[in-house]
Write a structure and sequence with these properties.
134 residues; mainly alpha; membrane; transmembrane; transmembrane helix
């Protein structure tokens, strides 16, 4: 049995594929960080248990949301662009703060990812595929 694919999804621009993969990686990283914080908290490694659990829950929720947004980008869902762009603006601000604090190992990859995602999401082929002839 052959799977029928919408011609628009079948002809997805490469820029959207790159954006979706990068957003999914960000989401999976957030899930991993949230899981690690929860694990460390449950083992007794947290100074403030409640704050650590809230941070873990927040990271897990953000990660799951980003994976959902990445799926939306892959499916050419118009709604997916807004949350992805807003997330990258905040990620860029966080990356700048991390870099200024000397946390280059975290800040540099985050700002690179944010720039790549913004450039690919706002590229003309991506705009046309997601927004049509608007």
């Amino acid at each position: 049995m052959r799977r029928v694919v919408s011609p628009t999804v079948q002809n997805r621009p490469f820029t959207l594929l790159v954006a979706a993969v990068a957003v999914a990686i960000e989401g999976l990283a957030a899930v991993a960080i949230g899981g690690w914080v929860a694990y460390e908290t449950l083992l007794g490694g947290a100074g403030d248990v409640m704050s650590s659990l809230v941070l873990a829950a927040f990271a897990l929720a953000v990660g799951a949301g980003l994976v959902w947004v990445a799926w939306g980008i892959l499916q050419l869902m118009r709604w997916s662009r807004g949350p992805a762009v807003v997330t990258q603006i905040f990620a860029g601000l966080l990356a700048i703060t991390l870099i200024q604090a000397g946390q280059l190992a975290w800040g540099v990859p985050l700002i690179v990812a944010a720039v790549v995602i913004l450039v690919t999401l706002l590229a003309p082929p991506s705009t046309h595929a997601l927004m049509g002839d608007v």
